Amino acid sequence: MSESPAAGRPRRVLIVVQNLPVPFDRRVWLEATTLARAGYRVSVICPRMKGFTAGRETLEDVDIHRYPLPISAEGTLGFAAEFAWCFVMTALLSVRVALFGRGFDVLHACNPPETYWLLGAFWRLFGKVFLFDHHDLSPEMYAAKFGREGGLLFRALLFLERMTFRVAQVVVTTNESHKAIAVSRGGKAPEDVHVVRSGPDLARFALHGRDAGWSRGKPFLVAYLGEICRQDGVDHLVRAMRILRDGLGRRDVHCVLVGGGPHQPAIARYAEEIGVADCCTFTGRVSDDTLCRILSSADIGVDPDPKTAWSDKSTMNKVVEYMFFGLPVLAYDLHETRVSAGEAGLYVTANDERALAEGIARLLDDAPARRRMGEIGRQRVRTALAWSYSVPPLLAAYDHAFALRAARRLPAPGPRGGGAAAA
Questions:
Q1: What is d(CA 144, CA 140) in angstroms, rounded to the nearest whole number?
Q2: Residue 343 confidence (pLDDT) above 60
């Protein structure tokens, strides 16, 4: 029987995330606050960025430690320097948390990148459990982003992934496709891998009346939501808007693209270069209230991720968020997008921008289909995909981690023999 947060010393966890700070990283913040509400003492280490610059603060009973990020990664050497800096700062802060902070029994490391297995191996020497939170397929994402599969960097990413899986005692991952990778490529036992989907917190969202201002006087509004990175295919959507207007004669639709990201300025310039800036609005990052008002005013939510080995196996948060607002989802035909959206989605030929444009036109011309798909999506979010449905598997993963930790305290002939020890 595992330790209980309500009996004896509370369970303690340290979450490490490098890609984004909290609370900006929604998945990590939901995990942290869920654990805190369940009685865990939670600490997080992350970089200072995206407006979250306080070195130390406590929010919703989560103790946050942020380190400065003086390196702006560009090119291979830049990324290597950034990863090294973040690793050193995280390692030092983990010692501070262990000795002078809340302490921790589980080190919960999120990817990308998969560099924290060394830190996990170190803390395992002191009886900590290393839990790997598998957000992304880093080798596949690298191939999608740079168009190169193979080579030294690709093999290095595979090595880091393999070592992370090897050191991790428990894995939390986002969908069944990722779990299959953890088992086949990572060599994990299926029972050590827990699927915790990235569902939305329904309390974050609110429906509003339609605001025609977002469509710039046009009858229809198409929405894109998400950080705009090179691999996200937003250029496909921009070109589809040109096809929609110039090839299909549709001048009754506007597109609003919500989100920042490293590639956003380049995509906004690209829209100007190909002559569609007048039918595309780039908002940058917006508040939750503004986001809700935009999506409440939209007719279609588009996910233009082109089909790659990365995207086909990835759960896109934007898809589920569109569904909350009752938007039919238009996307290329990707496996995990179908798993998420089901009949709330219209799936077109992968990587075919004309098919994307024709899909927009088809949905705009079929109001009953939009309503039917929107209702299916709305119900699916509320009955299967909201974050509340991810809480039990997350807590089960932690029960598993603490059961392993308790079992190792007892003399036993096997690696998991014996019973539970006192906390």
A1: 6
A2: yes
